[in-house]
Write a structure and sequence with these properties.
The chain is mainly beta and about 525 residues long. The chain contains five helices and 35 strands. A hairpin with a 2-residue loop joins strand 23 (about 325-330) and strand 24. The longest helix has 13 residues, at about 30-45. Keywords: Glycoprotein, Repeat, Secreted, Signal.
């Protein structure tokens, strides 16, 4: 059966609270036909723009939805999102006048059933009337949304990088993601955790968790292996109660608080792993990324069986990054034997009289998010054969003798380092001075990055580099740095090593050469 479009438009207007005056009036019909048409119009579901609607559809009884676009828009988008049931649909549009509305659903050809979100998008859409027919493979709910926003709904797809890290607490994962760039002050975030198969839509996740498709929650809901939580404006969460060595799918959904529109913002696969200590081999460096380990790294070292009694076990710990601070402690048989201490940049931890064949645990912690963001990695080396790294003086600042400054050179002074007790009478230490030309506005931090000097040499990230050997004594070292440019700023780093040992850095200094060169 076909219905004159004027009747439908009148019904749409009455449902939306508007009044429409038609020239020529509504064509008259006999009472029986008018009643049938009114009944069919009554079965129609009228859609409004920017308002998410959830409808329950019975299998084999497809529903028709109608929408009247009353002004020209840059984009018109109609989406149908399955809520745990496969959906097939079709969309037709027609002008306001001169067309009939086809109410015979048997004449409609729908696409194949699928669990994907169906999107109809029309650019530069003009005033028209739209019919949407939706059918389901199994009785269930669908979510329909009409948008006239200049941002097409098709662009609201998973783009966020969801970061998942294991926490130090048993059975917990930490989840973070960046804030949405679309209406950031008008959205809330929902977190969904499933065993393996993703929910793909928020309404589907709600049904899986035993909720209504259009329901709202204020606290975490857990049903079986499904967890769903409304986080409001938060962009991070902690997931608890996970089983070790099990796979999980983490999905983040964005919900527009004004329209109710939801879409999947980001997804990630996660596997909770028990945090096991990193093994240390005698004399070999092991690196750990504290950010990925939620701020805690644990290292295990087993003392060689042949280690003589009365020996010494040493850990070299370098925290890579500028102005970095961590806490460290040594444990044996689950009890601390070296109390927690603060490490600024680097440190050497010494244990006297280690027990042969015993296993010692070194724990490195950084719990402050700001500090954790500065730390790139932690380098640890353990040995019972003695470390050869030099010992920096208590005062590690480097001074410039400004009276000796010229347009192409500066003169620096600093206190010498000492060889380690395990160096077997070393008489020389090697000092290296690297310079890097910088702009005055660049941020400067004197605290050294103990890993940066080696990395700069490896990547040739410096302006000049000078290395020299110096006899071990207590006299202050003075050195002229040459081959600089006039009237330029330089960051200068002094570092020291003992043969092939690790490189240790003094504090950085920023200098500026003279503007004019005097002959």
């Amino acid at each position: 059966m076909q219905i004159n479009l004027s009747l439908v438009l009148l019904a749409v207007a009455s449902c939306s609270g508007q009044s429409i005056v038609w020239q020529g009036g509504i064509p008259s019909n006999d009472p029986e036909s008018t009643q049938k048409r009114s009944e069919m119009i009554g079965k129609m579901k009228f859609l409004k723009e920017e308002e998410a609607q959830t409808h329950y559809i019975v299998q084999g009884e497809p529903k028709m939805f109608v929408y009247l676009l009353q002004w020209d828009v840059e984009y018109l988008t109609i989406t149908v999102t399955p809520c745990s049931v496969p959906v097939a649909w079709s969309v037709r549009n027609m002008t306001k006048h001169g067309h009939k509305v086809n109410m015979n659903l048997s004449n409609w050809t729908l696409d194949s059933f699928s669990m994907s979100t169906h999107i109809y998008e029309e650019r530069n859409a003009t005033q028209r009337f739209y019919q949407v027919v939706v059918d389901v493979g199994v009785s269930g709910s669908v979510e329909i949304f009409v948008s006239v926003s200049p941002v097409p709904v098709s662009q609201l797809r998973p783009t966020a990088n969801v970061t998942v890290t294991s926490r130090r607490h048993k059975g917990q994962l930490s989840v973070r993601w960046p804030p949405s760039s679309v209406s950031p002050h008008a959205v809330s975030y929902w977190l969904v955790l499933t065993p393996s198969t993703p929910a793909k839509s928020l309404c589907s996740a709600k049904i899986m968790a035993g909720l209504e498709a259009n329901s709202n929650i204020d606290e975490e809901v857990i049903k079986g292996n499904i967890t769903i939580e409304n986080l409001g404006s938060r962009t991070s969460s902690i997931i608890k109660g996970l089983k070790p060595d099990h796979n999980y799918t983490v999905e983040v959904f964005v919900v527009n608080n004004l329209t109710g529109l939801s879409y999947r913002y980001g997804t990630a696969t996660a596997r909770y792993m028990r945090t096991r200590p990193l093994p240390l081999r005698d004399g070999r460096q092991t690196d750990a990324n504290l950010r990925k380990m939620d701020g805690r790294a644990t290292f295990r070292y087993k003392v060689p069986k042949a280690t003589p009694l009365g020996g010494r076990l040493e850990w070299y710990v370098a925290v890579c990054g500028t102005g970095t601070v961590v806490d460290a402690e040594v444990r044996h048989k689950r009890r601390p034997i070296i109390e927690r201490r603060e490490i600024v940049g680097y440190s050497i931890i010494t244990l006297n009289n280690p027990v042969p064949s015993a296993t010692y645990i070194l724990r490195i912690n950084s719990t402050e998010p700001e500090m954790l963001a500065r730390i790139t990695q932690v380098q640890v080396l353990a040995t019972t054969k003695g470390l050869h790294e030099p010992i920096l003086p208590k005062l590690t600042s480097v001074h410039e003798h400004k009276s000796a400054r010229s347009c192409r050179s500066v003169q620096l002074g600093w206190y010498p380092s000492s060889p380690s007790p395990s160096s077997n009478g070393t008489n020389f230490l090697t000092y290296c001075i690297t310079t890097k030309e910088v702009h005055k506005s660049e941020m400067f931090t004197p605290t050294p990055d103990q890993c940066a000097h080696s990395l700069a040499l490896k990547n040739h990230d410096y302006s000049t580099n000078l290395c020299f050997r110096r006899t071990v004594n207590k006299k202050m070292i003075t050195k002229e740095v040459t081959h600089l440019k006039p009237w330029k700023f330089y960051d200068i780093q002094v570092a020291v090593r003992n043969g092939n040992s690790k490189v240790l850095s003094y504090e950085k200094i920023r200098v500026r050469t003279k503007q004019h060169c005097h002959r």
